[in-house]
Amino acid sequence: MEKQAKNSNINIKKTVLTGDRPTGRLHLGHYVGSIQNRIALQDKIGNSIDNAFYMLADIQALTDNSDNPEKVSNNVLEVAMDNIACGLDPKKTTFFIQSCIPEIAELTVLFLNLVTLARLRRNPTVKNEMKQKGFGEDVPAGFLSYPISQTADILFCGGSIVPVGEDQLPVLEQANEIVDKFNSIYGETFSRIEPVLSNAPRLVGIDGNAKASKSLGNAIYISDSYEEIKRKVMAMYTDPEHIHVNDPGKVEGNVVFTYLDIFDTDKAEVANLKQQYKKGGLGDVAIKNRLIEVLEKIIAPIRQKRLELEKNPEKIMEILKQGNEK
Ligand code: TRP
Protein backbone atom coordinates (compact mmCIF):
# COMPACT_ATOMS: atom_id res chain seq x y z
CA MET A 1 0.00 0.00 0.00
CA GLU A 2 2.67 2.36 1.07
CA LYS A 3 4.85 1.36 -1.85
CA GLN A 4 2.08 2.05 -4.30
CA ALA A 5 1.51 5.50 -2.88
CA LYS A 6 5.19 6.23 -3.21
CA ASN A 7 5.31 5.11 -6.84
CA SER A 8 2.24 6.97 -7.94
CA ASN A 9 3.61 10.07 -6.27
CA ILE A 10 6.17 10.33 -9.04
CA ASN A 11 3.43 10.87 -11.58
CA ILE A 12 0.98 12.92 -9.56
CA LYS A 13 3.26 15.52 -8.03
CA LYS A 14 3.82 18.34 -10.50
CA THR A 15 6.55 20.75 -9.68
CA VAL A 16 7.45 23.70 -11.88
CA LEU A 17 11.06 24.75 -12.16
CA THR A 18 12.48 27.41 -14.38
CA GLY A 19 15.29 29.92 -14.32
CA ASP A 20 17.33 32.62 -15.98
CA ARG A 21 21.02 33.24 -16.29
CA PRO A 22 21.65 36.49 -14.45
CA THR A 23 23.82 38.24 -17.03
CA GLY A 24 21.67 41.29 -17.75
CA ARG A 25 18.17 42.68 -17.49
CA LEU A 26 15.34 40.72 -19.08
CA HIS A 27 13.64 41.75 -22.32
CA LEU A 28 10.34 41.24 -24.10
CA GLY A 29 11.59 37.95 -25.56
CA HIS A 30 11.83 36.54 -22.03
CA TYR A 31 8.46 38.05 -21.20
CA VAL A 32 6.48 36.40 -24.00
CA GLY A 33 8.68 33.29 -24.24
CA SER A 34 8.57 32.24 -20.63
CA ILE A 35 7.66 34.78 -17.91
CA GLN A 36 3.98 34.92 -18.87
CA ASN A 37 3.82 31.12 -18.60
CA ARG A 38 5.59 31.20 -15.24
CA ILE A 39 2.88 33.51 -13.99
CA ALA A 40 0.07 31.37 -15.43
CA LEU A 41 1.57 28.24 -13.83
CA GLN A 42 1.96 29.74 -10.35
CA ASP A 43 -1.77 30.42 -10.44
CA LYS A 44 -2.40 26.68 -10.85
CA ILE A 45 -0.78 25.86 -7.51
CA GLY A 46 -3.27 23.81 -5.54
CA ASN A 47 -4.84 22.47 -8.72
CA SER A 48 -2.63 20.72 -11.25
CA ILE A 49 0.58 22.16 -9.77
CA ASP A 50 1.97 21.47 -6.29
CA ASN A 51 5.01 23.67 -6.21
CA ALA A 52 6.75 26.29 -8.31
CA PHE A 53 10.42 27.22 -8.18
CA TYR A 54 12.28 30.02 -9.89
CA MET A 55 16.05 29.81 -9.98
CA LEU A 56 18.70 32.45 -10.58
CA ALA A 57 21.17 30.36 -12.56
CA ASP A 58 24.37 32.09 -11.47
CA ILE A 59 26.51 28.96 -11.79
CA GLN A 60 25.28 28.45 -15.36
CA ALA A 61 25.92 32.14 -16.09
CA LEU A 62 29.54 31.62 -15.02
CA THR A 63 30.06 28.92 -17.67
CA ASP A 64 30.73 31.66 -20.19
CA ASN A 65 31.50 34.52 -17.79
CA SER A 66 34.16 32.99 -15.55
CA ASP A 67 36.35 36.05 -16.15
CA ASN A 68 33.58 38.41 -15.05
CA PRO A 69 31.97 37.15 -11.85
CA GLU A 70 30.84 40.65 -10.85
CA LYS A 71 28.60 40.81 -13.90
CA VAL A 72 26.86 37.66 -12.69
CA SER A 73 26.57 38.59 -9.02
CA ASN A 74 25.40 42.12 -9.86
CA ASN A 75 22.63 40.76 -12.02
CA VAL A 76 21.17 38.29 -9.54
CA LEU A 77 19.06 40.99 -7.89
CA GLU A 78 18.28 42.71 -11.21
CA VAL A 79 16.83 39.57 -12.76
CA ALA A 80 14.93 38.67 -9.59
CA MET A 81 13.38 42.16 -9.63
CA ASP A 82 12.51 41.85 -13.33
CA ASN A 83 10.54 38.68 -12.62
CA ILE A 84 8.76 40.06 -9.57
CA ALA A 85 7.92 43.27 -11.43
CA CYS A 86 6.31 41.21 -14.20
CA GLY A 87 4.08 39.44 -11.68
CA LEU A 88 5.97 36.36 -10.55
CA ASP A 89 4.90 36.31 -6.90
CA PRO A 90 7.43 35.15 -4.29
CA LYS A 91 4.49 34.14 -2.07
CA LYS A 92 3.54 31.54 -4.67
CA THR A 93 6.80 30.83 -6.49
CA THR A 94 9.91 30.03 -4.47
CA PHE A 95 12.86 32.13 -5.65
CA PHE A 96 16.36 30.77 -5.02
CA ILE A 97 19.97 31.07 -6.15
CA GLN A 98 21.61 28.12 -7.89
CA SER A 99 24.99 28.54 -6.18
CA CYS A 100 23.35 28.31 -2.75
CA ILE A 101 22.14 24.76 -3.38
CA PRO A 102 25.12 22.36 -3.25
CA GLU A 103 22.84 19.40 -4.05
CA ILE A 104 22.57 20.68 -7.64
CA ALA A 105 26.33 20.46 -8.03
CA GLU A 106 26.38 16.98 -6.49
CA LEU A 107 23.68 15.69 -8.82
CA THR A 108 25.52 17.25 -11.78
CA VAL A 109 28.61 15.16 -11.01
CA LEU A 110 26.54 11.96 -11.10
CA PHE A 111 24.80 12.94 -14.34
CA LEU A 112 28.14 13.74 -16.03
CA ASN A 113 28.73 9.98 -16.29
CA LEU A 114 25.53 9.43 -18.25
CA VAL A 115 26.30 11.70 -21.22
CA THR A 116 29.00 11.35 -23.84
CA LEU A 117 31.18 14.14 -25.14
CA ALA A 118 29.86 13.45 -28.65
CA ARG A 119 26.28 13.96 -27.44
CA LEU A 120 27.18 17.26 -25.78
CA ARG A 121 28.75 18.51 -28.99
CA ARG A 122 25.61 17.67 -30.99
CA ASN A 123 23.21 19.80 -28.91
CA PRO A 124 21.91 22.42 -31.41
CA THR A 125 21.33 25.09 -28.74
CA VAL A 126 24.83 24.76 -27.34
CA LYS A 127 26.31 24.63 -30.86
CA ASN A 128 24.51 27.82 -31.76
CA GLU A 129 25.56 29.63 -28.59
CA MET A 130 29.16 28.47 -29.08
CA LYS A 131 29.13 29.97 -32.55
CA GLN A 132 27.63 33.23 -31.27
CA LYS A 133 30.26 33.46 -28.56
CA GLY A 134 33.09 32.48 -30.90
CA PHE A 135 34.28 29.58 -28.74
CA GLY A 136 35.29 27.02 -31.38
CA GLU A 137 37.41 24.19 -29.91
CA ASP A 138 38.30 26.37 -26.91
CA VAL A 139 34.87 26.01 -25.36
CA PRO A 140 34.98 25.77 -21.55
CA ALA A 141 34.03 22.25 -20.44
CA GLY A 142 31.48 23.77 -18.08
CA PHE A 143 29.75 25.55 -20.94
CA LEU A 144 29.62 22.48 -23.18
CA SER A 145 28.09 20.50 -20.34
CA TYR A 146 25.58 23.08 -19.06
CA PRO A 147 22.66 20.94 -20.29
CA ILE A 148 23.77 18.37 -17.70
CA SER A 149 23.76 20.84 -14.81
CA GLN A 150 20.46 22.24 -16.12
CA THR A 151 19.04 18.72 -15.81
CA ALA A 152 20.17 18.68 -12.17
CA ASP A 153 18.56 22.14 -11.66
CA ILE A 154 15.23 20.69 -12.67
CA LEU A 155 15.41 17.27 -11.04
CA PHE A 156 16.92 18.04 -7.62
CA CYS A 157 13.58 19.45 -6.46
CA GLY A 158 11.40 16.96 -8.34
CA GLY A 159 10.70 19.42 -11.14
CA SER A 160 8.97 18.22 -14.29
CA ILE A 161 7.11 21.23 -15.70
CA VAL A 162 9.51 23.70 -17.28
CA PRO A 163 8.32 26.91 -18.97
CA VAL A 164 11.02 27.97 -21.45
CA GLY A 165 11.63 29.73 -24.73
CA GLU A 166 11.84 27.60 -27.87
CA ASP A 167 15.64 27.76 -27.97
CA GLN A 168 15.79 25.65 -24.82
CA LEU A 169 13.93 22.63 -26.27
CA PRO A 170 17.07 20.72 -27.31
CA VAL A 171 18.42 21.20 -23.78
CA LEU A 172 15.30 19.64 -22.28
CA GLU A 173 15.40 16.82 -24.83
CA GLN A 174 18.89 16.03 -23.62
CA ALA A 175 17.65 16.27 -20.03
CA ASN A 176 15.03 13.61 -20.75
CA GLU A 177 17.71 11.30 -22.13
CA ILE A 178 19.44 11.64 -18.75
CA VAL A 179 16.15 10.91 -16.93
CA ASP A 180 15.62 7.76 -19.02
CA LYS A 181 19.17 6.54 -18.62
CA PHE A 182 19.25 7.21 -14.89
CA ASN A 183 15.92 5.47 -14.33
CA SER A 184 16.89 2.47 -16.42
CA ILE A 185 20.16 1.91 -14.55
CA TYR A 186 19.28 2.87 -10.99
CA GLY A 187 15.52 2.35 -10.89
CA GLU A 188 12.56 4.61 -11.44
CA THR A 189 13.57 7.86 -9.71
CA PHE A 190 12.86 10.94 -11.80
CA SER A 191 9.83 12.03 -13.83
CA ARG A 192 10.27 12.98 -17.47
CA ILE A 193 10.36 16.70 -18.14
CA GLU A 194 7.57 18.52 -19.96
CA PRO A 195 8.53 21.84 -21.56
CA VAL A 196 5.82 24.50 -21.56
CA LEU A 197 6.04 26.76 -24.60
CA SER A 198 4.15 30.00 -25.10
CA ASN A 199 2.36 30.79 -28.35
CA ALA A 200 5.18 33.24 -29.09
CA PRO A 201 8.10 31.03 -28.07
CA ARG A 202 10.67 33.11 -29.97
CA LEU A 203 10.61 36.86 -30.41
CA VAL A 204 12.49 38.42 -33.34
CA GLY A 205 14.91 41.25 -32.63
CA ILE A 206 14.14 44.85 -33.59
CA ASP A 207 16.64 44.41 -36.46
CA GLY A 208 14.73 41.42 -37.86
CA ASN A 209 17.29 38.93 -36.52
CA ALA A 210 15.66 35.61 -35.66
CA LYS A 211 16.06 36.16 -31.94
CA ALA A 212 15.93 39.14 -29.61
CA SER A 213 18.91 38.81 -27.31
CA LYS A 214 21.02 40.92 -25.04
CA SER A 215 24.22 39.80 -26.74
CA LEU A 216 22.92 40.98 -30.13
CA GLY A 217 21.77 44.31 -28.66
CA ASN A 218 18.46 44.11 -30.52
CA ALA A 219 16.00 43.72 -27.65
CA ILE A 220 13.47 45.91 -25.87
CA TYR A 221 13.87 45.55 -22.10
CA ILE A 222 10.95 45.26 -19.72
CA SER A 223 12.55 48.06 -17.72
CA ASP A 224 13.11 50.36 -20.74
CA SER A 225 11.92 53.95 -20.44
CA TYR A 226 9.27 55.35 -22.76
CA GLU A 227 12.05 57.16 -24.67
CA GLU A 228 14.01 53.93 -25.14
CA ILE A 229 10.93 52.08 -26.37
CA LYS A 230 10.29 54.91 -28.80
CA ARG A 231 13.85 54.97 -30.09
CA LYS A 232 13.93 51.19 -30.57
CA VAL A 233 10.56 50.94 -32.29
CA MET A 234 11.49 53.83 -34.60
CA ALA A 235 14.65 51.88 -35.54
CA MET A 236 12.72 48.67 -36.24
CA TYR A 237 13.21 46.80 -39.49
CA THR A 238 10.11 47.09 -41.69
CA ASP A 239 10.07 46.66 -45.47
CA PRO A 240 13.11 48.28 -47.11
CA GLU A 241 11.16 48.64 -50.38
CA HIS A 242 8.34 50.54 -48.72
CA ILE A 243 9.82 53.97 -49.38
CA HIS A 244 6.82 56.23 -50.04
CA VAL A 245 3.64 56.10 -48.02
CA ASN A 246 1.65 55.12 -51.10
CA ASP A 247 3.91 52.22 -52.05
CA PRO A 248 2.46 48.78 -51.28
CA GLY A 249 4.30 47.34 -48.27
CA LYS A 250 5.25 43.86 -47.10
CA VAL A 251 3.79 42.56 -43.85
CA GLU A 252 5.73 39.27 -43.69
CA GLY A 253 9.10 39.76 -42.06
CA ASN A 254 8.09 43.28 -41.06
CA VAL A 255 9.09 43.46 -37.42
CA VAL A 256 6.51 46.10 -36.50
CA PHE A 257 3.70 43.78 -37.60
CA THR A 258 5.35 40.77 -35.98
CA TYR A 259 5.30 42.67 -32.67
CA LEU A 260 1.75 43.97 -33.21
CA ASP A 261 0.61 40.38 -33.83
CA ILE A 262 2.03 39.36 -30.46
CA PHE A 263 1.37 42.39 -28.26
CA ASP A 264 -1.65 44.25 -29.70
CA THR A 265 -4.88 42.87 -28.25
CA ASP A 266 -7.04 44.50 -30.94
CA LYS A 267 -6.59 41.78 -33.56
CA ALA A 268 -9.29 43.19 -35.85
CA GLU A 269 -7.54 46.53 -36.04
CA VAL A 270 -4.17 44.87 -36.72
CA ALA A 271 -5.76 42.92 -39.59
CA ASN A 272 -7.19 46.15 -40.91
CA LEU A 273 -3.81 47.92 -40.72
CA LYS A 274 -2.14 45.02 -42.54
CA GLN A 275 -4.65 45.34 -45.39
CA GLN A 276 -3.98 49.05 -45.71
CA TYR A 277 -0.22 48.60 -45.50
CA LYS A 278 -0.21 45.94 -48.24
CA LYS A 279 -2.34 48.08 -50.51
CA GLY A 280 -0.28 51.23 -49.93
CA GLY A 281 -1.20 54.43 -48.14
CA LEU A 282 -0.12 53.54 -44.63
CA GLY A 283 3.25 54.87 -43.48
CA ASP A 284 5.82 53.18 -41.25
CA VAL A 285 5.60 56.00 -38.71
CA ALA A 286 1.87 55.41 -38.21
CA ILE A 287 2.28 51.71 -37.43
CA LYS A 288 5.34 52.41 -35.30
CA ASN A 289 3.45 54.99 -33.25
CA ARG A 290 0.75 52.43 -32.61
CA LEU A 291 3.30 49.84 -31.49
CA ILE A 292 5.00 52.34 -29.16
CA GLU A 293 1.69 52.91 -27.36
CA VAL A 294 0.88 49.18 -27.24
CA LEU A 295 4.28 48.37 -25.70
CA GLU A 296 4.17 51.31 -23.31
CA LYS A 297 0.84 50.09 -21.99
CA ILE A 298 2.41 46.71 -21.17
CA ILE A 299 5.75 47.97 -19.88
CA ALA A 300 4.64 51.05 -17.87
CA PRO A 301 3.17 49.11 -14.91
CA ILE A 302 6.14 46.70 -14.90
CA ARG A 303 8.59 49.63 -14.95
CA GLN A 304 6.77 51.31 -12.10
CA LYS A 305 6.67 48.19 -9.95
CA ARG A 306 10.38 47.69 -10.64
CA LEU A 307 11.22 51.22 -9.53
CA GLU A 308 9.48 50.50 -6.24
CA LEU A 309 11.38 47.23 -5.79
CA GLU A 310 14.70 48.98 -6.49
CA LYS A 311 14.15 51.18 -3.45
CA ASN A 312 14.31 48.16 -1.17
CA PRO A 313 16.95 45.62 -2.30
CA GLU A 314 17.13 44.16 1.24
CA LYS A 315 13.60 42.88 0.77
CA ILE A 316 14.62 41.01 -2.39
CA MET A 317 17.66 39.59 -0.59
CA GLU A 318 15.36 38.34 2.15
CA ILE A 319 13.07 36.66 -0.41
CA LEU A 320 16.06 34.87 -1.94
CA LYS A 321 17.41 33.83 1.45
CA GLN A 322 14.08 32.33 2.47
CA GLY A 323 13.81 30.53 -0.86
CA ASN A 324 17.30 29.06 -0.49
CA GLU A 325 16.35 27.71 2.90
CA LYS A 326 13.14 26.19 1.63
N1 TRP B 1 19.47 27.89 -19.84
C1 TRP B 1 18.39 28.74 -19.46
C2 TRP B 1 18.43 30.01 -20.34
O1 TRP B 1 19.48 30.34 -20.86
C3 TRP B 1 18.41 29.16 -18.00
C4 TRP B 1 18.22 27.98 -17.07
C5 TRP B 1 19.13 27.47 -16.19
C6 TRP B 1 17.05 27.17 -16.95
N2 TRP B 1 18.62 26.43 -15.53
C7 TRP B 1 17.35 26.21 -15.95
C8 TRP B 1 15.79 27.19 -17.57
C9 TRP B 1 16.42 25.24 -15.60
C10 TRP B 1 14.86 26.21 -17.21
C11 TRP B 1 15.18 25.24 -16.24
O2 TRP B 1 17.44 30.68 -20.47
Short description:
The protein is α/β, with parallel strands linked by helices and about 325 residues long. It contains 15 helices and five strands.
What does this structure look like?
The chain has 326 residues and is an alpha/beta fold. It is built from 15 helices and five strands. It has a five-stranded parallel sheet, sandwiched between helices. Helix 11 runs antiparallel to helix 14. The two termini are 29 Å apart. The N terminus is likely disordered. The site of tryptophan (TRP) has 14 residues, from strand 1 and helix 9. Tryptophan (TRP) binds next to strand 1 and helix 9.
SSE layout:
Blueprint: H1 2-12, E1 15-20, H2 28-42, E2 51-56, H3 58-62, H4 69-86, E3 94-97, H5 102-111, H6 117-122, H7 124-133, H8 141-144, H9 146-155, E4 159-163, H10 169-186, E5 194-196, H11 226-234, H12 255-263, H13 267-279, H14 284-310, H15 313-325
Bound molecules: tryptophan (TRP).
Tryptophan (TRP) binds next to strand 1 and helix 9.
